[in-house]
Amino acid sequence: MTFTSDHALFYALGSRVVEADARMASDSRVVDANAPLGGWAVRVFESNADVVNGLDVDVSGRCLAACDDSGEIVVYDARTGAVVKRLRGHDGCATAVAFRRKRGAESELLTTATDCRAMKWDHRAKTVPVRTWDARSVRSARDHDRAHSGAADESSDDGGQRMFNPPMLHSVSAFEGETCAENAPGARRVACAACGDGTIMVFDADLKAVASSSGKKLSSASSKAPGGAFRDGRAECVRLGEDGVGGHANAATCAGFVPWLPRGDIIVSGGADRRLIAWNWVSVSTPGDFVDDPSARASGVVADLPLNRKINDLAFVRDSRRIVVVDTGPKVTFIDFTE
């Protein structure tokens, strides 16, 4: 579900996407999601072949993207409902899609799926992904620390408190806050995905390649790349919670950047472990050289709030600086969030 203006609402209904006029709803009335065109529903998009799991509208409001259980992403003309492009590349159910808000990259979108992969696409140029990140093999900042120091992998030493599921990706989000001098370097380049193994994968969507295991660079990294973990090109991502100590004890189901914090450095995630966690991903990436001792890298957790039910999704209300949490129960929870 996504809003594109004060009243235009898009939501998934089975294999369809409905554009609705929120002005037809009120606090005192429950709106029928199956209402016919002419009332609450303004337009219906019906070209997805299977159940739609995620959708997003680009910054111009002209394109709608919807991903479904078949693994396909359908890009529509949001004004007419016509299909602009069909994107195929995922081997599992496509779980989420997000258009980028970076200037010059308005036609690019990010997707995630149960095949454990995140993909970047340019729907104006190609029908195949521009770049792929596989959560099962992607090289993280902590991986580099271990290789650099020769330390053994101790991430599984968690006292049995954490469940290790496959890192299927359940959500994807890009930083959508206002750009300013206080932004973490390259904040518009960064995206995050919630993983089934309980971690949050933070990656630079504009990084084309990383260094080989020998340390030889395969590509030059821009000085605008976010954080030390990406800037020198030796890591593809930062994995929040991969140390097995902090973070989620079960699958992470959703994650997003807090849009009203000017540095773009805080991510909030929800999980099947009934917890809402706030992370400072920049503190984990370390602005500078990699650390010699992997255990010295910060966990990044700045707040941890236990809730009563498994969390399905979250959203941010900028004006009131609140987080909206949807869980497995019948209620929607609003949580105040300030620095």
From TrEMBL:
SMART domains per UniProt: WD40
Ranges for region Disordered: 135-166
SUPFAM superfamilies, per the entry: WD40 repeat-like (SSF50978)
Basic and acidic residues bias (residue ranges): 135-148
Protein name per the record: WD40/YVTN repeat-like-containing domain
Species whose genome carries this gene: Ostreococcus tauri (Marine green alga)
